[in-house]
Amino acid sequence: MNDHPANPALPRRAAGASPAAAAADAVLATAQALREQIGGEFHDRLAETIYGEAGRLADRAVTRPGAARRFDLDRAVDRIVTSRTWGFPLMIAIFALVFWVTIVGANVPSAMIASLLIDTLHPMLHRGADAVGLPWWLSGFLLDGVYLATAWVISVMLPPMAIFFPFFTLLEDLGYLPRMAFNLDNLFQKSGAHGKQALTMMMGYGCNAAGVVATRIIDSPRERLIAIITNNFSLCNGRWPTQILIASLFVGGVASPAVASVVSAGAVVGVALLGVLFTFGVSWALSRTVLKGEVSTFSLELPPYRPPRILQTLYTSLIDRTLYVLWRAVVWAAPAGAVIWLVANVHVGGLSIAERAIGALDPLGWVIGLNGVILVAYIIAIPANEIVIPTVLMLTALSVRSVAGMGAGPGVMFEADGAQVLAMLRAGGWTLLTGINLMLFSLLHNPCSTTIHTIYRETGSARWTAVATFLPLSLAFVVCAATAAAWRWLGLG
Q1: How large is the greatest C-alpha to C-alpha distance in the chain, in angstroms?
Q2: If you average pLDDT over residues 123-140, what whole number do you get?
Q3: DSSP H helical segments within 352-431, as ranges?
Q4: Element (H, E) at 351
Q5: Which of 5, 95, 102, 298 is the most core-located residue (most Cβ within 10 A)?
Q6: What stretch of H or E contains 317?
Q7: How much is the CA Rg of the chain, to the nearest whole Å?
Q8: What is the distance between the alpha carbons of residues 42 and 48, in angstroms, rounded to a whole number?
Q9: Exposed, middle or buried, 343 (CB in 10 Å: 0-12/13-18/19+)?
Q10: How confident is the model over 31-59, as pLDDT tens digits?
């Protein structure tokens, strides 16, 4: 990404450049200055004029038969899907339905997998380790660290992803996602961003690193940089399990059992929509401060609706997405489990490293409505968001055992049943505020290491990579602290 010094989105040209390069910089600087003088709606008016003139020429040159017009199903559906009145409510309803089905459908298979891998197989592996005479520290490291973290990733993540991704892929194949981009285009332009950012935001819901790469479709370097910085506000694959689990345990828990799943789905949709609002807000702020410039206009051609291709959808969602993300999570969960076991069982001055780290971060955690366990878990989970929940659960189990005077023991043990998980979290001091702020923190915190590396590769700038990393993290702390302060001021708990 090379540009002239007047553009703050890109690195400056090195000193001592050739006269030709200096002349090119001068031309580009002049063009930038003139572009800002033109005004923000110039390209809109130009595009409208071009298409309006093309329509008038077509009306004069094209002869249409007098027969009745053929019914066009695509246009009829688009009048509803992309309408100003029904477009957004329909979009929210569709995603609410997808999340509701995901939450309801994932409960049973998740419990079954957890029962098999944790309640049944884990004790069997321990008995086998005892039979062959493995020392406690080796069996604990392998079984209570590496194996348990991996088992929790599989049981917590596999069922929701196996349900959510086919639905998401189906909407993509049907041609609905470009309609969502069409609906959001005007809002992105009002926030000073490019309309194509709607498409990159949709890619971010699968993987933020992929969303960052997808910003290459935006020609304007300034608007591309805005899209890169704000893509983190799209909930990626690794953060959906955190949202779904916490919403089910805490938010759904305050409602009656008859509507608990609906309330949980509404909470997840609300967090996703909040991410969209933060995307608009941060884009607006950047486009009016450090990344000022004219908003570009683009033409989005809506593809025709296509009949569902069930086999291809299942293959794409289960093989290319679900198993890929699950494998990536397992690859990071195994070493993370080893680290968790080590910090839980290596003692310094009578306390484990984990207990010391949790105690040191607890005051900051209280200020932002979380706790030291969650903050330590997010530090460990920087390589991949997928391992946040297993890390939180294992560290919470350690904390609960320590408070109860049981010590860390040979490993970190916890039950797999959802009710028992909730009971363990509440024993660790979790409240409804903790659950809500964890959902907010999961939405807003820094990108994972893969996305950070991708941002640096795409921008070639350490400065903008730092902005894209620490801006959302700062917002996460501010929003969570404000929520906690308001919660306590209102006396909600």
Answers
A1: 92
A2: 89
A3: 353-367, 372-380, 388-403, 418-427
A4: strand 351-352
A5: 102
A6: none
A7: 26
A8: 10
A9: buried
A10: 777 766 666 566 667 777 777 777 777 76
